[in-house]
Amino acid sequence: MNDIIRINEKDNVAVTLSGTGEIPAGHKLALRDITAGDYVIKYGQIIGRAKQDIPAGAWVHTHNVASHLDEAVEYHYKFAADTVAPQPGFFQGYPRQKGRAGIRNEIYIIPTVGCVNNVCIRLAKEAQQYVHGNLHGIYALTHQFGCSQLGEDNENIKKLLCAIALNPNAAFVLIVGLGCENNTLAGMQEYLAPFERDNIVSFNCQEVEDEHTFGMELLRKLADRAAAMQPEQVPLSQLCIGLKCGGSDGYSGLTANPLVGRICDRVVAAGGSAILTEVPEMFGAEQLLMNKCKDVPTFEKYRSMIENFKRYYTDQGFPVYENPSPGNKAGGITTLEEKSLGCIEKAGSTALVGVLDYGEVLAGGERIEENGVFALNAPGNDLIAATALAASGCQLVLFTTGRGTPFSTFVPTMKIATNDRIAAHKSGWIDHNAYPMDEDALYELVMRTACNTYTCKSEDVREIAFYKTGVTL
To answer: How far apart are CA 456 and CA 443, in angstroms?
Structure first.
């Protein structure tokens, strides 16, 4: 029985670490007889109902358990979060004119529209000759949108691209427009104006004779200025980490997610911030997060976000429990409730201090917003959610995974394995193995990444993706 973990004394299932008989590693077995219709309990919470009688010792999974989610559940508020003693800390970062310091010192090339992707890619490729000194890289953040989108989609594309331009890791930003797109360069400039940044330059390709020569000259000057910038010791109150999981398995809620939760608590105790997203992967665990809201207004905003996202599903004819993925199920996750209860472990034990809209920047203007844990309105898709986290101001994303993934958004994306097998099998993707549950080792790696003495395995990849909900012309 040493190979079997029961998480909570209320649980009627346990997780087998290396497999037993027909039960694969990371999957659940019944600790006692469970009658058809009875609740299946894990994490001390309901993760589903038995579809048939399940004898003690039997495999508990999709063949005999169904989701118990109620799409019309009513929510209430009863505050229940820990208070973490302040523990000030510092990191070596690059101070910016406004808001938080960067943990990298890079130049982003951002197209207003997919039509100029090739221009941006060519500029980034040839501008590598300008990378020197303390300039860490020049990256084209391409995408396929910016024209033919209507309404909310068109506004969200503008907001996201502007938010990306405001990320602290960007020493400078070159925005490249075409000149006839829906997402106009003028519209982006107007949106950015209140932030009063002096590190963003732009041009429309249709308005210059040779867009490549024009862009290269701009980049040469920006590169020289970025190369001369010096890192300084800054307080950890200027660090914001993104919390994300992908390719989850039966170990996620046992190892990597709780370990990241401890790191989250330590960053918050040092005055920093963390952002949790993947709203559909809160369904089934949302009441626990609601009880962590610092006050009633925060609870109301969080509840509204949950209810609106559920309505988004049902209005389009889909149940809110259209999850987990095939990979999740293969790894031992049976229902969305089980996945969500493991997912929210990443947010640690401290209070939820705010709720962010999609594309909303946490640290804008002249001030740094209240520090702590924030919830962000975005879906669970890995690329979309990670982009949204970084666009809201995260300089680093902690990404837990039980199956592995090679992607990275436009800020360092640290892959944290849930189990030994994936850590060994995909060592070229994985930055840290959470299975030993060594909190100090992971915290040290996070701090080294913040100080730019550690480079995440996937940092050579820079991708962005949008949350699109409407019509494309």
So the answer is: 14
